[in-house]
Design brief:
Elements: H1 2-28, H2 37-54, H3 58-105
Helix pairs in contact: 1-2, 1-3, 2-3
């Protein structure tokens, strides 16, 4: 029984590390808790998961860490989508300008 408990603890610690990395990755692409409610939610859930780890409530810690990871991934995806849309808009503006220039040249 003891080795299995120890194994679960290690697995949960790995999950916590992965969640921390996911939070950092979301921030690295430009997500901020002030602008992204999903990232704020992820940070809150991760903080609660850390508290659950200290209380040895490992099942709760794992569930909150997984939820935090998914929220952070959603925040990251939203930031990347917004940046992609901004690039598309900029390209469409340039295309429109070039078409106008070509039309004026004829």
């Amino acid at each position: 029984h003891y080795p299995l408990r120890r194994q679960r603890q290690m697995c949960i610690r790995d999950r916590m590390r992965l969640t921390a990395q996911t939070l950092e990755q979301a921030k690295a692409v430009g997500a901020s808790a002030e602008d992204m409610p999903e990232l704020k939610l992820a940070e809150d859930k991760f903080s609660r998961a850390q508290g659950n780890m200290q209380d040895e409530s490992y099942k709760k810690a794992r569930m909150r860490a997984e939820q935090a990871e998914l929220d952070a991934r959603l925040a990251e995806a939203k930031v990347l989508t917004r940046k992609s849309q901004e690039q598309v808009n900029a390209l469409n503006t340039r295309i429109t300008r070039l078409r106008k220039q070509l039309g004026d040249a004829q």
